[in-house]
Amino acid sequence: RRGGRGAALAARRAGAMCSCSHDEEWPEDTWNLYQHIERAEGLNTLGDGDVRGLFKPHARRRDSAPAIESDADEELIVKVWFAAPVNIRRIIVASCHSEEEADPGSHPSSVRCFTGPTAEPLGFDGMEDTQPAQVIELLPNPEADAFTQCALKPFTQVSFLLLHFPGNHGGVERTRVSYIGLQGEHSHAKRQAVDAKYELVPNAEDSKEAQRLLGLDKTGAMGRMQ
Fold first, then answer.
1. Which of 37, 44, 153, 157 is a plausible cystine mate for 85, CB 3.0–4.6 Å?
2. Burial classification of residue 91, based on how many CB atoms lie within 10 Å of its CB (0-12 exposed, 13-18 middle, 19 or more buried)
3. Distance set, CA 54 to CA 86, 140, 225 (Å)
4. Across the chain, where does the E strand assignment appear?
5. Contact 189, 127 (CB under 8 A)
6. Rounded Cα–Cα distance for residues 132 and 124 (Å)
7. Which of 222, 113, 93 shows the shortest CA–CA distance to 169?
8. What b/e readout covers 172-201, taking b as 16+ CB neighbours within 10 angstroms?
9. pLDDT of the chain along its 226 residues, tens only?
10. 163: how many CB neighbours lie within 10 A of its CB?
């Protein structure tokens, strides 16, 4: 019976994620997570760049605007907060423009991805000591068609994403990004405070019962970390 309850719970959790579009203007835009972004901000961006506007419907991925450019040097950071946990399965990064609009060499050459709440306070100074969830080498992507598959575990149930662009293909002063596509699944459970309830565990005099309640009496309960 215990196993049955666990299977039912897992099924309910799996069913809580979906890939449907919530944008009435783009109902066919399934798997696109731009609709579930609560807010986005950039570091070292030139002027008042529309960071949130980088996350567009797939049909508008080749639009040259809005776009952002780096300011003091070639590095850029984009921070993204989601309204509810998401599973990110693919990432697309592109700089779409005419030759008159921007230098072709300004397309980012790589992106370092950090996920989870521990990444929220990171800036340019603190990232060298932090292991990214994934490092993606980027080729110029003027048609915004090329994508990269994300590592499964660190991109599951993500509520925060940081993208660090350390440089560009041309070695020019400014790095430019016009589209970031995040494809995957979303949940409908909004982030909220947790109302936790706790139960007292029997003391050491009743250790066998305590181990049973905690599930520690089962052999093989501990598995290898992947």
1. 157
2. buried
3. 18, 17, 36
4. 17-18, 37-43, 68-69, 76-94, 110-115, 134-137, 148-149, 158-165, 176-177, 179-187
5. no
6. 13
7. 93
8. bebbbbbbbbbbbbbbeeeeeeeeeeeeee
9. 334 444 334 434 444 666 555 555 545 666 889 999 999 999 999 998 899 999 999 999 999 999 999 999 999 999 999 999 999 999 999 999 987 888 999 999 999 999 999 999 999 998 888 999 999 999 999 999 999 999 999 999 999 999 999 999 999 999 999 999 999 998 766 554 444 443 444 444 444 554 454 454 554 433 433 3
10. 24
pTM reported for the whole predicted model? 0.74
Q: Is 136 helix (H, G, I), strand (E, B) or coil?
A: strand
Residue type, 57: P
Residue 80 tokens, joined = 């993204």
Residue 198 tokens read as 């706790």
- Read off the tokens for 36: 């579930």
Encoded amino acid at 212, one letter:
R
